[in-house]
Amino acid sequence: MKNLERRVWTVTLGALLIFVAYEIIKTVLFPHISIINSHVITVIVVAVMTFFVSRYALNRYSQALAETQRQTAITEETNRLLSGVLATMHEAVIIVDSQMRVALYNEAAARVFKLAAADAGKPGARPTTSKTSRQEVGSQASSNVEPAHAYRLTDTTRDPAINDAFKQVLEHGAPFELRIEIAERERRSFQLNVAPLGSELVVGVFFDITQLEKLERVRREFFANLSHELRTPLTAILACSETLLAGAINDAKDRNRFLQALRKHAERMNDLISDISDLSAIESGQVKLCLETVRLGRLVADVVTTLESRRADSDVGFRTSIPDGLLVLADRTRLEQILYNLIDNAAKFNRPGGSVNVMAEIEDGKIVISVEDTGIGIAASDVPRVFERLYRGDKSRSSKTEGTGLGLAIVKHLVRAHGGEITASSELGRGSRFAFTLPTASHLEKPDEGVAVELSALDL
Ligand code: ATP
Ligand code: MG
Known about the structure:
This protein is of the alpha+beta class. It has helices at residues 2-29, 35-88, 107-112, 131-137, 153-156, 160-172, 210-245, 252-283, 296-310, 332-348, 395-398, 407-417; strands spanning 92-96, 102-105, 176-182, 188-197, 201-208, 292-295, 317-321, 327-330, 355-363, 366-373, 422-427, 431-439.
């Protein structure tokens, strides 16, 4: 402003000096000119000068106006893009001003914190001094519009760690990172990155790492369980071989007993390793499905017969209820593996005299196959974990029952590879129900006659 005033004074003084110089030159050059002529010449000179000065001033003004309009258009476009980006972001974003008031937040933040979804993307509590900062924040920002909302950060979350992080960045102007847990609606973990935005605003981005942490926990537990599962038979193998070497080998009865034990534990390790390589092959998409129409009732009957003969010492009863001629589109070997695992579990985790019921029905164009048992059941907190690799329920009991704890993990991947989903429900002490879906193939009339629908490059 001062600069402008100085320029006005300079121009006025310059004009005055030019006018004085003009008068002196005119008097020296034309000493005998009449007053009327003198005025006429002056008027003409002033008119010409006014024309050129006005033209110059107008040019400068229209240039400045065009530049302002261009800047406004750029700001509006930037704000539009910023709002769009904020709205589509999965990460919660909150911007606070120097008074710790929420200046802007997105929809994701409204889902996590106590913030109105309707106000997401609208500038709220805004910094009072810096106009440029306001323009950076949101499209609707304008100096004479009242804030749509004026949350303080402390109103949106009581977590002192979050408030301290924003405060610290406001005070020191350096970015800050921390890991937090929020339990507003459900417990979730976040990586919070807070960074300064200009001199008066601070932006906080909340990255949801709940799923990542869960995967990390599953991975850690998998390796812990794996080493445990391998160590148990390995220790037994070492113990048996040492006993044999120590002299038991000379006694025919002992030799036989320890060799049987060696074989049993070696078989267990072999099962475990082949299950792991099967699972990783399925997970990495190396196993291809060869889809064909399969008569479900016949396949289930085969699986039940195999299991009955393997579990001849058990008195668990099997019942099947599958509509005649029901056809499914599946890889026969893999479907057999799925059914074997589920029906085997239902028999294995059953009680004496218990029963297993295998049923199938068509629901919404899909076939739902369920395996129900009247067995020991699974604790409610464990139900979501049964599909994890190497998960085995009751450890004390599991160590007595055979199995690697990989069956259901394999089943889950195989069902998904067929385009289905599997669910588990259970009541401790009463029994469990595992149900999975498969596409129907009932439009094909002649089952099991080589009408194979081969998907040679089906990725799992
Ligand atoms: P594997 O299938 O490799 O022989 P497993 O049967 O122990 O071993 P999964 O089939 O993956 O492993 O099952 C994981 C765990 O889930 C079991 O150890 C058991 O604790 C629990 N579980 C599975 N099915 C049932 C069921 N029908 N009733 C009760 N518990 C079950
Ligand atoms: Mg099993």
